[in-house]
Known about the structure:
By secondary structure, the protein is an alpha+beta fold. Helix content is 40%, strand content 21%.
Amino acid sequence: MDGNALLQLFSFIYASLIIVLLSFLIDLLRRILLDSAASFTSSSTTAIVCNKQTGVSYRGIAVSGVEHFQNIFYAEDTSGNNLFAPPVPSLPAPSVTVSQP
């Protein structure tokens, strides 16, 4: 074999090893993410907090002692007539339970 053919052979072997290593790492990462997602959903419980001043309840989830609440709006929509106006606080009606989507 001449030097050029040997260099091409080593380049091919090197590229093949990189592809195998990357596919192994991607599969490992996928397994880790799937395992953590499964443990996240299996160990979660419902968390409910009530604001006594407004009477509004918020429903979320509790995972490993940490409560997570989503879908809480802090201001009304800022489009249309409210485009350049100061934000208007978003207050749900009393005795309403705001849930996650």
